[in-house]
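Incident log entry.

Two folding requests arrived from the same account within the same minute. Monitoring flagged them as a possible duplicate submission, but the sequences differ. Recording both here for audit purposes.

Request one:
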Amino acid sequence: MAAVITSVTPGSPAEKAGVKAGETLSAINGHPINDALDYGFYCYERTLRLDLGNRTVKVRKRDDYDDIGLNFETYLMDKKHSCRNKCIFCFIDQLPPGMRETLYFKDDDSRLSFLQGSYITLTNMTDSDIERIIKMKLNVNVSVHTTDPELRRKMLCNRFAGDVLRYIGQMAEGGITMNCQIVLCRGWNDGEQLKRTLADLTALYPAVQSIAVVPFGATRYREGLPTIALHDKQSAGEAVDIIESFGEKMLAEHGERVVYPADELFITAERELPPSEYYESFDQYENGVGMWSYLRDGFEEELEEREPDSTPRELTIATGILAAPLLKHLAERFRDRFPGTVIRVTAIKNRFFGETVTVAGLTTGGDLTEQLSGQNLGERVLIPRAMLKADEDVFLDDMTLEQVREKLKVPVIPVGEEPYELIDAILG
């Protein structure tokens, strides 16, 4: 497959060599170019021969890492690969109708695993895909869930889901580093099945460098989907005990914990969250592993660096049910150092997806305005930046940040995940 060049960066090596927008790139130094991975890998050499359909152009770079300056219609130079599974726990299958179309797309693209850190199930990959990953030394993130082939077929509703487990071993033998995740479904892949999966994956260390175990989450839109019970204190505690037993074993044998429960499992089990040191390099931070400890410990350290004062301040922090206790604790710590500050932490119930959804990032603008309207909000409202679309100030229900501000009649300030950002936002 070839890719049409949509533009050429002014002053770039490609422009200096005479490459034009509208030409089609088919090969670099004789290697066929199918997508962004091929393009990045084969652009590494200092001198490049570009096959542009009816002509060949030589491009010279000053440095191996220089970008030659070609731009394409899509980031991948290709369409995203969609998921072929119908996982029993899939959140997208639990979305209500009528949301923006992009939210219903199920991504399962190995290229995005390397480029953006997304997780893949391996079910839409071939032997040649695995060979390319090994050749290019592309570290990937794998959604494993279980290493029991038959159970994996049932959980992913894909007859090939068990067969492709062999790819994990092949990548390990090929020197590929993997982060793995397990979505823990009560009565399905917990208990002895969880022990089996963790034993199989930890045996591949150091190729498997980290494993996150995250609990299944349900919305109120599960009609026609398999029944999965939510975790309670006992089941979450049992899972934490299993996970920590493997983590302690890996720590003793290899000096790294490797296996981590998601923060939500600790909270559901009513266990104290560990200190930041427990999470080592925070390899699974984006999976909700260590976020609480990172914010709690970083907030306390940052707070000690700030000069205290008694300046009057009054504000509201709006968050999800899950994070509210932590933020109330941090608000109390802040008031101890800045006694003139009044902080109200409001836990927003998720009525859009259902009250079983407790994470702040899935809070909608409608729920936010409905539950905050009429309250004394103070000078401003702080919300987690995660409530908004990554590249746009839009909530999941398509309400804009500006619309929420107009309804609440106060400034609504999105706050990033770094502890200092929260302190700066409180200080104004």
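Request two (distinct sequence, not a duplicate):
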Amino acid sequence: MRLRPDQLARHLRGPLAPVYLVSGDEPLQREETLDAIRAAARAAGHQERIVLHADSTFDWGELRQHQQSMSLFADRQLIDLRLVDRPGTPGGQALLDYAERPNPDAILLVSGSRMDREAMRARWYKALEEAGASVQVWPVAAGQLQGWIRARASGLGMQLGAEAAAALAERVEGNLLACAQELEKLRLLVGEGEPSLDEVLASCGESARYSPYDLVDAALAGDVGRALRILRGLREEGVAPPLLVWTLAREVRTVTAVCEGVEGGLRPDAAMAAAKVWERRKALVTAAARRHRAHGARELLALAAAADGAVKGATRDRPWDVLEALVLALAGLKIFTPTTYNQPLDA
């Protein structure tokens, strides 16, 4: 069965499943999910914890040994299997075998980073899900972050106002672990109740952490201010411009393909399917496609090509200037055209 993170607590109050599979790239929520399962397992008598790190050198025979061994003592086992890499063929078969014949004296807890579609279609993944429960942990979207902060603060006995939550969200955007730490610190400094905006600002530091994918999502959504803030944050963190160009250009090509498909007579959903747009990204790509249409998308392609030339040193343009122009244009604020750039080196 599949469980959402918010369904897990209720599930853990009942009989535990023999197998749990937890995946996701958001470290705070993933670790809290794993901690909750471990605590429930201990309470159910699984006091002996065996930790296995399944990297590329892991011997999957170890899992088979624990699958077949019965507990000689009163304490039952929690097999904490951490997927450092994808299991591959031997690991997939070992997990499939375990799911078909789980150890009655043990709970198998499998954890790893976000699973893509290919992994979720694998036989081992489906078998583990059918034998027990899977929990996929997703990052908190930007539009939901303030609500998450206020709920987290409430759990600590604090009531954050809208302005205070917005201020904290701006400073820790993209880093839930830092946000949780800031709330804990704020609780120690001001106690329970409703901290003022000034108290929140005085307590928290800059803890924002962004990825190139956050930049792309903000630009596709048309959120100019956030997109620029992320771009500048990535620059301060020392992210290489070629990585940003590659990420942005890939998304621009997708938007262009959708726009040209619609222009050619396809329905929007058919154009999305032809461009291989994931279900979770359809809303963002649709928003960008409506904003630009085919002609505007082709201009974005030309601007992406100019950014590529700038980061490769083929023109006199400054890479971060062209990147900023591309981000603004993708977000819907067209200030510069492609002809503004591509200045030859000998000009």
